[in-house]
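[Automated response] Your request has been received and processed.

Submitted sequence:
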Amino acid sequence: MRRGLLVVAIATACGPSSSEVRTARETLYNADPHVILKLAAEAAEGEKYRIGSVDEHEMTFVTAPKFYSSTGDLESAGADNIVVIRPGSLRVEFIVRVLAADPHHVGVTVTPRTFQAIAGSPKPRELGPDDPYLPSFVTGRADALSLAIYQRAKSYALASPGGS
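Generated structure:
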């Protein structure tokens, strides 16, 4: 019995459920797009992402790149604030867009932009969001950011998708 409880506790502590992620991705907000963009940026900063470029006309921002090992460990900067890139290392940033669903409602998308260092190649390989070689930790971080944005902006949310 105790083992079963431990498994349940570990499973629930691992991250958001698929229904929570789906809600975060599909929710529409009844708010000015600039308000949602600001809340999304605050959520990203709360998740320890620095904000890189912001385009208020396109209602988009990109997080500053972070470097990870192929297993998802954050590659930290060493001397002179330089990150050592190894074969398999990944440069990950997230593109956050506030999109008009109709004249009065907006949605938010979080899309990873990922480049992987390849041994013997001076040019990294881009891994698209649907690339089968994209490590699951990248999509997991995108999902976590989507959920953080939803949590920050949920006071503007319309009824949850699917009526839940």
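Summary generated for your ticket: Helices lie at 2-13, 18-26, 33-46, 136-153. The first strand starts at residue 51 and ends at 55.
If you did not submit this request, please reply to this message.
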